[in-house]
């Protein structure tokens, strides 16, 4: 298992009161899975993702990544894992405005101590992958929203992370641009990367293999989706259907309408 969350809770103190943003959430994510977390605004999706992304700690419960308990990890180890095995994509792109598209993509590799020549080659390769080779020297404010999001995805892929976490990656885009981003996620997933995408958009969620639905901090449903893309990938579909975790859970593979 790539991710195992056991009875995770996260509460915030707000003046005198306590907000329980995430309540008793348990689930796991296997290598190669494309998981969507959905639910209304305020249901705890971003808080849960901050925990998965080692940006925040749960108040209680266990969180393991690659079989390792993260509870006792030092801040340095957590930062190292974030840089090496996680890639983040945010709704608002979070590109650095004074760096070019290529320099933004190179940044995680700089942090990881990759040599300049290697960084450059890899950044150009990633620019090609997201279809923005000719935008390499552009600054973020010279790019459209869809282009900035594609640069942000290229940046998230820079260190070849095992797990990509995306929080509302298509939230700021029109449906056509959003669909392009989702095509890209599906392609990345087919190439073997695990993806967790947060969305409140059903159309986005239906691109995933599996949907976790949240409400008031709780996971209220854990549903398998057999997308056409996924049905075509029979080996992957079979591994899901055969997976012992599914037995006895009442989870039914659902065919698309
Ligand atoms: N840093 C924080 N301090 C206090 N309350 C927070 C904080 N982050 C989130 N919350 C609260 O936790 C709940 C869940 O928020 P969030 O995880 O952002 O939900 P979602 O991403 O589903 O919209 C909300 O009620 C929100 O106001
Ligand atoms: Mg959110």
From TrEMBL:
Recorded GO molecular functions are: ATP binding
Q: Which Pfam families match?
A: ABC_tran (PF00005)
User: Mind telling me which Gene3D superfamilies this protein's record contains?
Assistant: P-loop containing nucleotide triphosphate hydrolases
Q: Which UniProt keywords apply?
A: ATP-binding, Nucleotide-binding, Transport
Task: Give a yes or no for keyword Transcription regulation in this entry.
Answer: no
Keyword Membrane in record = no
SUPFAM superfamilies to which the protein is assigned, alphabetical: P-loop containing nucleoside triphosphate hydrolases (SSF52540)
Q: Where is the ABC transporter domain?
A: 3-241
Q: What is this protein's record name? A: ABC transporter ATP-binding protein
Organism equals Leisingera daeponensis
